[in-house]
Amino acid sequence: MMYNGTCHNNIPQMVPHSFDQDDLFARRCIWVNGPVIVGAGPSGLAVGAGLKEQGVPFIILERANCIASLWQKRTYDRLKLHLPKQFCQLPNFPFPEDFPEYPTKNQFINYLESYAQHFDISPQFNETVQSAKYDETFGLWRVKTIVSTSNSNPAAAEVEYICRWLVVATGENAEKVVPEFEGLEEFGGNVMHACDYKSGMAYRGKQVLVVGCGNSGMEVSLDLCNHNASPSMVVRSSVHVLPREICGKSTFGLAVLLMKWLPLWLADKILLILAWLIFGNLEKYGLRRPSLGPLELKNISGKTPVLDIGALQKIRSGEIKVVPGIKRFSHGRVELVDGQNLEIDSIILATGYRSNVPSWLKENEFFSREGIPKNSFPNGWKGKGGLYAVGFTRRGLSGASLDAMGVSQDIAKSWKEETKQKRKSVAARHRRCISHF
Ligand SMILES: Cc1cc2nc3c(=O)[nH]c(=O)nc-3n(C[C@H](O)[C@H](O)[C@H](O)COP(=O)(O)OP(=O)(O)OC[C@H]3O[C@@H](n4cnc5c(N)ncnc54)[C@H](O)[C@@H]3O)c2cc1C
Ligand SMILES: NC(=O)C1=CN([C@@H]2O[C@H](COP(=O)(O)OP(=O)(O)OC[C@H]3O[C@@H](n4cnc5c(N)ncnc54)[C@H](OP(=O)(O)O)[C@@H]3O)[C@@H](O)[C@H]2O)C=CC1
Ligand SMILES: O=C(O)C(=O)Cc1c[nH]c2ccccc12
């Protein structure tokens, strides 16, 4: 047995020595007397809050230099939550009363900052988890990180954390998806992913190709219109567009209610009939519906239906042009699969996101190859050997909150049992020592 390095939470522990020698000398090794949480987004913060309330020590490792980096760094200026506020607040800390029904991104970020402050949560920033592996022999997780360098301190630091519990809270949207397109290198204009898009201000009077028609593609196209740019939005397959509200009531709220009482297919049928009554047939605008219903599709593939906040009206008026799939790009132009050839100034890839879990978690029983728990909601939060997942339910923030409550309670229970056990054996050892004298 040997101990090498710092102790967190002032509880010194001996760490069994089972590492490669190289590893040991290159990395600082830290025992964590509680779970390591990866990611300081809403999911990681909610688990942290639950653990704090139960007196369980933990650390949160976050690759960015702030909490909720998806919201702070990878979303556009005018973004608002598209689900009503009651579905987006985290456990045990309601939104301020004066928040509107659909809080703005800045209101949501402020709320998350207050949340972290209220529960006294201080994540370790600029620290990216590179790998996490379960050590079967000792029943412990080994979590390797790299601490980002700053200009004043150029040396990269590598750290290894050792812990009993690992909480994966890196999100369903951890990395942008950037597809390959023929001829894109010849295009010559500006190309960016929707996660880097802030506002349409810079695009005034420009022809912009928006690739993808999920909520990002629709909302970026709408924002471009509002800034007097001309977007063409690529719809290569199909999409479910639903009104954000039906008769003044949130469609998402209605969907939750329907799902509680009816089979999914029937809930979907009702939503589609209501959408048809409100929108009519959208096929004439190039918006075909998938064969699966919106809720079933979300459940099976994770594809979120579009909740319309005004893009549809711009499509009807022709201000947003709907175009089919891309064949190839050339200098300043795009050729589409139907033979159309458009002159364009810029491209925005609203082509979605993916989980990054497979790139760092050395495990293939609990998580799928896509980095989502294999068991679906509500059975996808607990794996073996102290492994947990939060925020992979395909149910947005409300799913993350439910996960977080289950996970923090479960960990607190086993943490208390284990520490009681340890305290007992330490006390017994202590008694034996005393009886020697
Ligand atoms: C544009 C947009 C709008 C959305 N709007 C809504 C909405 O209105 N309502 C709703 O319910 N949901 C919405 N969502 C879904 C969104 O996933 C959730 O709102 C929420 O952000 C999920 O929280 P999370 O903590 O699980 O993931 P994230 O918010 O993505 O947080 C994960 C954190 O983990 C960090 N991380 C990732 N990999 C590592 C690593 N290897 N090491 C260390 N840290 C790492 C990331 O930097 C990030 O800070 C939206 C998503 C997008 C993209
Ligand atoms: N206001 C809000 O709250 C907002 C919420 N969000 C959320 O963020 C998450 C991510 O949404 P989003 O970024 O829209 O991603 P999505 O995964 O929902 O959509 C990706 C889109 O890109 C298309 N696409 C992918 N590859 C290609 C390709 N090679 N050629 C053409 N099209 C392609 C997809 O088409 P296909 O279906 O054919 O694969 C699809 O239309 C969702 O959960 C969404 O609800 C996003 C924006 C705003
Ligand atoms: O906005 C998101 O990314 C969400 O995941 C929220 C969400 C979860 N399930 C849905 C079903 C219909 C519309 C939005 C959502």
Strands, helices and their partners?
Blueprint: H1 21-26, E1 28-31, E2 36-38, H2 42-53, E3 59-61, H3 69-73, H4 105-118, E4 127-135, E5 140-147, E6 157-163, E7 166-168, E8 175-176, E9 190-193, E10 207-211, H5 215-226, E11 230-234, E12 241-243, E13 245-246, E14 249-250, H6 251-261, H7 264-279, H8 294-301, E15 306-308, H9 311-316, E16 321-323, E17 326-330, E18 333-336, E19 341-343, E20 346-349, E21 353-354, H10 357-360, E22 361-362, E23 387-389, H11 396-436
Parallel strand pairs: 1-6, 2-3, 2-7, 4-22, 7-23, 9-20, 10-11, 10-20, 11-16, 12-15
Antiparallel strand pairs: 4-5, 5-6, 8-21, 13-14, 17-18, 18-19
Tell me about this structure.
This protein is an alpha/beta fold and 437 residues long. 31% of the residues lie in helices and 20% in strands. Strands 1-6-5-4-22 form a five-stranded mixed β-sheet. The protein has a five-stranded parallel β-sheet with strand order 9-20-10-11-16, with helices on one face. Residues 1-25 and 433-437 have low confidence and may be disordered. NADPH dihydro-nicotinamide-adenine-dinucleotide phosphate binds at residues 79-82, 173, 179, 194, 211-217, 219, 234, 236-237, 303-304, 325-326, 350-353.
